[in-house]
Amino acid sequence: MTRRKDDWPFPHRTQHLSGVGQAFALALLILVIPGLSGCVNASLAAARSKLSAGQYAAAHEQLMAAAGQPQKLSARERREVLDDLCLTEFKIGAPSYPVAEQQRACTRAASQPGNRSGSTLASVEAAQRAALAAEVTSALKANDVMLGEDAITRYRSIPGADPRVVAGWSRQIWVILNRRDSLAQKRSGHELDAAISKLARAYPQMKEMKESAFRHWVLDNASVDGTQMVSSVQMRRNVVDIWVPDERLPTVALNLDRFAQINDALVARCRCDGRTNVVVAGTGLPAYLLRLDPETNRSEVLILPRPQDTPVRQFDTGNRASLARPFRFSSR
After folding, report:
1. What are residue 289's DSSP bridge partners?
2. Residue 257: closest CA among 221, 216, 220, 203
3. What secondary structure does DSSP assign to 32-47, as a single string?
4. Is residue 169, in this structure, part of any structural domain at all?
5. Are residues 93 and 139 in the same domain?
6. Please, what is the Cα angle at 190 between 261 and 301, to 5 degrees?
7. What's the pTM?
8. Which of 142, 152, 272, 287 is found 20 to 30 A from 169 (Cα to Cα)?
9. Is 1 within the bounds of a domain?
């Protein structure tokens, strides 16, 4: 016997059970869903209570419990959790939550539409700037250029950093560096004269080179595969300032031998203790200093702080014995 479509299997019973099943499933959902979200709702309720009582550590603990189950939170509840985590970490503060951690929490919260963490984030960033400004001031007072520029670099990464303040710090750093150079020149004496004479013989063509021609030579030597690494060159009798945009610093770091050769040529041209400064365009902060080393009769690279992801390649320049190395200034 051929069955019709509705005959298989037990159609009326199947329809009846289907209706019962739907009712049962609906009842099950009504009973189970509150149970699944009950713990989260309890954590949020407890967090709100603790916040209103000013118990920020306890509120933070409840918020973290709720944040651990984001799939059970509505969009509004997720925003509430992020906002309140930002607030509690700011209120608790260091050492439990260092300023950098506060900034991360508040930046994440402030990225959500409809958030209320903007003012807290602004307060966190203001605290960061103030702390780093104090760190810079302390370092420069001690003539510690390395620590000072490292703190300045971190200060610049905070939204709201004042470029005028950075410019003032930059001027102070150059005063320290110039003072250090002056002391080094006084101590070098006969060895320095011998090194200058040796470089003059190595670069005889530099003696008669006009300033415009020498500038062109510097720009050519500061190019890689036809692309200039520098944005501008400023020249004085015994100093060349080479300005480099931030985005070119990684390329400069891999070609420091070219800048050492520039300083060698400068020494040969001026018949003096020439100095080449690689300066970060936009801030005036030093990135690298090229100085004549009387012991090796060649220029060496003095590395100043830079972002951690900037590579530095050690290089071999023939008879140059010194490699790029860190240099720390101390008070005199």
Report:
1. 277, 302
2. 221
3. HHHHHHHHHHHHHHHH
4. no
5. yes
6. 25
7. 0.70
8. 272
9. no
Q: Cβ of 66: how many Cβ atoms within 10 Å?
A: 25
Same domain, 290 and 215: yes
**Which residue has 């100093």 as its token pair?**
239
Please check whether residues 102 and 193 belong to one and the same domain.
Answer: no
Q: Is the peptide bond before 286 cis (omega within 30 degrees of 0)?
A: no
Of 110, 143, 161, the one marking the end of a domain is 161
- HSE-up (13 A, CA, CB side) for residue 78: 12
Tell me the C-alpha distance between 284 and 61, whole Å.
Answer: 46
Is 247 found in the same domain as 145? no
Distances, alpha carbon 63 to alpha carbons 79, 111, 119, 330, in Å: 11, 18, 20, 48
299 phi and psi angles, rounded to 5 deg: -85, 145
Looking at the structure, tell me whether residues 153 and 193 fall in a common domain.
no
pLDDT in tens, 28-43: 444 444 444 456 678 8
Residue 9 belongs to some domain of the structure:
no
Q: Are residues 125 and 236 in the same domain?
A: no
Count of residues making up the chain: 332
* Encoded tokens for 219: 């720009």
b/e sequence 159-192, b meaning 16+ C-beta within 10 Å: eebeeeebeebbebbbebbeebeeeeeeebeeeb
* Per-residue DSSP letter, 191: H
Which DSSP symbol is given to 287? E
261-320 pLDDT, tens digit per residue, is 999 999 999 999 999 999 999 889 999 999 998 889 999 998 876 544 444 343 333 333
Euclidean distance between CA atoms 102 and 93, whole angstroms: 8
Low-confidence residues of the chain, pLDDT below 70?
Answer: 1-40, 185-188, 305-332
Give how many domains the chain has, as a whole number. 2
DSSP-derived secondary structure letter, 94: T
For residue 86, give its domain range.
Answer: 52-161
197 and 322 part of one domain:
yes
Structure tokens at 182: 């002056």
Q: Residue type at 105?
A: A
Domain assignment of residue 253, yes or no: yes
